[in-house]
Write a structure and sequence with these properties.
- It contains 2 helices and 9 strands; from the N terminus they run βαβββββαβββ.
- It has 129 residues and is of the alpha+beta class.
């Protein structure tokens, strides 16, 4: 067995899709729309085979007001970029473009080299090796 994909609710599937395409090399599917359900989604595929589904519906409420506060349920996704230098460079680039850096880059107690940033909608991303 394997996880087929992970889904995130988003306020702006097109904007969030563009973020992951630009910074993490994702390939975006065409936008799917179900007018009856007022639902839209875009699947993002990564070279590794992992997929992320971005979903949008006007009646979905945000989980909480402060993305710095941990909540039960989804906490982060980790994206491996290949080297410590790439972690450092991408972290600097995203921070310069206005993304919030929550932690790192640093070596964790369990051996990862990572930084943690928030995507444009406040989802935590571990950029790791």
């Amino acid at each position: 067995m394997r996880i087929e994909h992970i889904a995130l609710w988003a306020r702006d599937v097109d904007g969030l899709s563009a973020f992951y395409v630009r910074h993490f090399g994702a390939m975006a599917s065409p936008r799917y729309v179900n007018e009856k359900k007022r639902f839209a989604s875009i699947f993002l595929s990564f070279d590794s085979g992992a997929r992320l589904e971005l979903m949008q519906r006007p009646d979905i409420l945000p989980a909480g007001d402060d993305p710095h506060v941990m909540q039960m349920g989804y906490t982060h996704m980790a994206i491996s970029v290949g080297s410590e230098q790439e972690v450092d460079a991408l972290t600097r680039k995203l921070e310069a473009e206005g993304c919030v850096r929550l932690d790192g880059p640093r070596r964790t107690g369990d051996g990862y080299y990572e930084s943690v940033i928030l995507d444009p909608e406040g989802n935590r991303i571990e950029i790791t090796v």
